[in-house]
Design brief:
Layout (H helix, E strand, L loop, with lengths): L4 E6 L5 H11 L5 E8 L4 H8 L3 E4 L11 H14 L4 E4 L8 H6 L4 E5 L14 H10 L3 E8 L9 E8 L6 H24 L3 E4 L2 E4 L5
Parallel strand pairs: 1-2, 1-4, 2-3, 4-5
Antiparallel strand pairs: 5-6, 6-7, 8-9
Helix pairs in contact: 1-6, 5-6
This protein binds 5-O-phosphono-beta-D-ribofuranosylamine.
């Protein structure tokens, strides 16, 4: 029985990426288990965690008494991840920009899913609907999904996996997002399993995917 990788998920939205990870852990498709879900807002992702019997931590971004600074907010997030001994942190629709202390604590062990082919249509403000609107406004014929390691810059870390998804005639941001989402779900689990198998090797900007161990 392969040792289960302990995964912490940070999310701020509906949580369909989280749900796929939970389901794939439960089915044995992933040699992993989600040990905690943390959100800065009450959201669908926390509800999904509670339903699955997973620790669901709402660290309220509006609580300026407890978290007067972003650094103190991130220290609370970090303490929660460490309490649960998370070995990999997955951002799944997490909308906060993280401070260096949190990102550096999980250097090489924190990944993110982005609903476009980075480095295009990434960076500040490129979240959710805005990503797909920008792709359509530019007239792209192909978009897609990217899983990458998280670094201090936004959406700039070494790329683990990418998958192209066609833009169709008449697409709206909603129809494009809906076409990409299932590919995000598949790609994210593929990346988590590669990490669990120790097959991801960061070499500068590149990530080498090592062959399966015999
Ligand atoms: C997804 O497109 C994800 O890439 C983006 O937010 C959308 C919804 O994610 N960050 P989820 O359903 O909350 O996982």
């Amino acid at each position: 029985m392969a040792k289960k990788l302990r995964v912490g998920v940070l999310a701020s939205g509906g949580g369909t990426n989280l749900q796929t990870i939970i389901d794939n852990c439960a089915s044995g498709k992933l040699d992993a288990e989600v040990v905690v879900v943390i959100s800065d807002v009450q959201c669908g992702a926390l509800e999904r965690a509670r339903k699955a019997g997973i620790a669901a931590e709402h660290i309220d971004r509006r609580d300026k008494e407890r978290f007067p600074t972003r650094e103190e907010f991130d220290r609370a997030v970090l303490a929660c991840l460490r309490r649960q001994e998370a070995e990999l942190v997955c951002l799944a629709g997490y909308l906060r920009i993280m401070t260096p202390e949190l990102v550096e604590a999980y250097e090489g062990r924190m990944i993110n899913i982005h609903p476009a082919l980075l480095p295009s249509f990434g960076g500040k403000g490129m979240v959710g609907h805005h990503v797909h609107q920008a792709v359509l406004d530019y007239g792209c014929k192909v978009s897609g999904a990217t899983v990458h390691f998280v670094t201090l810059g936004t959406d700039e870390g070494p790329i683990i996996l990418q998958r192209p998804v066609p833009v169709e005639e008449g697409d709206t941001p909603e129809t494009l997002a809906a076409r990409i989402l299932p590919h995000e779900h598949e790609l994210y689990s593929e990346a988590i399993q590669l990490f669990a198998e120790g097959r991801l090797k960061i070499e500068g900007r590149r990530v080498r995917i090592l062959p399966r161990k015999a």
